[in-house]
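sorry for the late reply, my laptop died twice this morning and i had to redo everyting from scratch. anyway the thing you sent over, i finally got around to it. pasting the sequence first so we're on the same page, its 131 residues, then the predicted structure underneath. double check i copied it right bc i was rushing
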Amino acid sequence: MAISKKISETLGRASWIRKMFEEGARLKSDGLGPVYDFSLGNPDLEPPAEFRERLFSVIGDDAPGKHKYMANVGYPETRQAVADSLQREHDLPFTADSVIMTVGAGGGINTVLKAILDDGDEVICLTPYFV
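ok and here's the structure:
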């Protein structure tokens, strides 16, 4: 089934990283030799059994609030666990308030740049760089 012209145009304006991902998928499906997709950090292997077991146990947990939307900065207990790990590793006083969880590198880079840059600041990017 063909997708609408509007959706096709929107997909055509997607980020370069998405375009690279889609092109890699097309080349792979066409059987054009080995294709190694480094665009989105998608693993080429299935997750280990331990991960799947843990995932299913979390899905099956029906504790109140377990499956609600999280705050923009991430789940407090996850942020605290990361802070505890960083504190042990670096012997510095990290707290959950020192940690923000993001979805992927792009979200993290966006958060950091918004925190340190002011309107009108110039940013110089060396190549090669992440799209």
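The helical segments are 5-12, 16-29, 49-60, 76-90, 104-116.
thats about all i looked at so far, will dig more tmrw
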